[in-house]
From TrEMBL:
SUPFAM superfamilies: RNI-like. This is F-box domain-containing protein. InterPro entries: LRR_dom_sf. It comes from the Eukaryota. The lineage of its organism: Eukaryota, Fungi, Dikarya, Ascomycota, Pezizomycotina. It comes from Massariosphaeria phaeospora.
Length: 471
């Protein structure tokens, strides 16, 4: 029998054992010694939720030293299955979290643990918010910070070397966590960091959500100060996602950051309006092998109220101040994908994988999660979508971000002709249009017109993809 056939047979057996339940797996280990090696390796990943059977299985793991030492990857989740049925108004769940909490200190004995992922529910409610509408599926700030503090305390062990940390739905408000010595000690060992930030969304009154202070404090200061700046010389893989648009407003200024060893960068819901945002990506050209832009539109026109644009540092000549319309300040970025793709092709010489699309933000899985974009970010294809350009209008609700075409994604595969027709018919339906027409007539409306040039941009994207250094 050839060596390749042996490899195939071994792989089939290994995958079969990964699907076995604990009882058959134990019986098979007893009956066949070669399979014992494969069954032990299949236990390298452990999953813990508050469900009774999950907690029981996790605690049983520590009764066997061999199985315990085999664990390299740990996935933690603070909810059981259906997020929508997780009632935590006044921080009350339908089940006790105490058994789940009691498992966390035991992590320090997983001597070969290398990768930890933690997932909270998507909905958050900040302490400064007067009314908490999001009672279903919302986990309080107190619960989240307790989990984080206990987790970092457990991982703060000289015998542990966790190099990969992933936190999905990290709240933009985590009081007392970042000052914790255990957090800093764990952070010092990281090589890969993957964060999806959860910001508050008031379903019954989202008109002032954009001004909730916690999100601005986090993106303006805390993200760099507590997470990214200390990791500049360590990280090889970085993912930054958020549940709402960020980058332009709330502002994330990345110009002071440089990751000399960065190989993979994934950004989700990152809005773009400044050339220096593109320059920051290009600054990692010497090492960057993977780039994923998941729902990262160029904002080709933005309208701000005074208190909004006054808090942002605009370049000279970038911001137009208007006193006679609803929009007090406006900016019309000239960035276009048609110019960016050729620069990526010429400068990102180490790039092997490029993804750009609207990921599965609205896809449901068997666990009831309604957002799979963060988890499936490395599967992102490269294609032009209508939502690659957007508007920001301070007077439009329920969201100030007007991203055309999102409703068409995930429903069916639209042909190029259908998408082109959609782009031609894009009508910026926002309060700002009336202002622009009254102030500037046709010239004002022209600046709000959808700027995509699909045929030329598609050609530029294809040239970029053709030039990738594939493995």
């Amino acid at each position: 029998m050839s060596f390749s056939c042996l490899i195939v047979k071994y792989e089939i057996r290994r995958r079969s054992f990964a699907r076995l339940l604990s009882a058959p797996l134990k019986f098979t280990r007893i009956q066949c010694r070669p399979f014992a090696v494969m069954s032990a390796s299949s236990s390298s990943s452990v999953f813990l939720t508050p469900a009774e059977d999950s907690v029981a299985n996790f605690k049983a793991l520590f009764e066997n030293a061999t199985r315990r030492e085999a664990v390299q990857k740990l996935s933690l989740r603070t909810f059981i299955d259906d997020i929508e049925n997780e009632v935590s108004y006044a921080d009350e769940k339908e089940y006790s979290m105490d058994p789940w909490h009691s498992c966390i200190p035991q992590l320090s004995s997983l001597s070969n643990l290398r990768e930890v992922s933690l997932t909270f529910t998507q909905r958050v409610s900040n302490p400064t918010t007067a009314y908490h509408y999001n009672d279903y599926g919302t986990e309080s700030t107190e619960l989240r910070t307790t989990v984080l503090k206990n987790l970092f305390t457990a991982l703060d062990n000289t015998a542990l070397n966790v190099s990969t940390l992933s936190i999905e739905n990290l709240q933009d408000c985590s009081p007392g966590v970042y000052e914790q010595p255990a957090f800093k000690n764990v952070r010092a060992k990281l090589k890969s960091l993957h964060l999806k930030i959860a910001v508050e969304y008031s379903e019954h009154g989202p008109d002032r959500d954009i001004d909730i202070p916690e999100k601005h404090v986090f993106f303006n200061r805390q993200l760099n100060e507590h997470w990214l700046s200390p990791l500049q010389h360590q990280l090889t893989h970085l993912s930054l996602y958020a549940s709402d648009y960020w980058g332009v407003f709330p502002r994330w200024d990345c110009r002071g950051l440089r990751f000399p060893h960065l190989q993979s960068l994934a950004l989700g819901n990152w809005s773009i309006a400044h050339q220096w945002q593109i320059d920051w990506i290009l600054a990692h050209a010497d090492t960057l092998e993977e780039l994923y832009l998941d729902d990262c539109p160029i904002a080709h026109a933005l309208s701000f109220e005074t208190h909004q644009h006054a808090s942002l540092a605009w370049e000279d000549g970038e911001l137009e101040i208007m006193q006679d319309g609803y929009a007090d300040g406006a900016i019309y970025p000239t960035l276009r994908w048609l110019a960016i793709f050729p620069v990526f092709a010429a400068r990102l010489t180490q790039l092997k994988r490029f993804g750009m699309a609207h990921g599965p933000w609205d896809a449901y899985n068997s666990d009831g999660d309604s957002d799979q974009a963060f988890q499936r970010r490395y599967d992102l294809p490269a294609r032009l979508e209508v939502g690659r350009y957007c508007l920001f209008d301070c007077g439009t609700l329920p969201t100030h971000w007007i991203v055309e075409g999102m409703r068409y994604n995930g429903v069916k595969e639209w042909s190029e002709d259908e998408v082109r027709k959609l782009e031609e018919e894009v009508d910026p339906d926002c309060c700002w249009v009336l202002d622009a027409e009254e102030r500037e007539g046709k010239a004002g409306l022209e600046r709000l017109k959808y700027p995509g040039r699909r045929r030329e941009e598609n050609m530029a994207l294809e040239q970029l993809l053709e030039g990738l250094e594939m493995d």
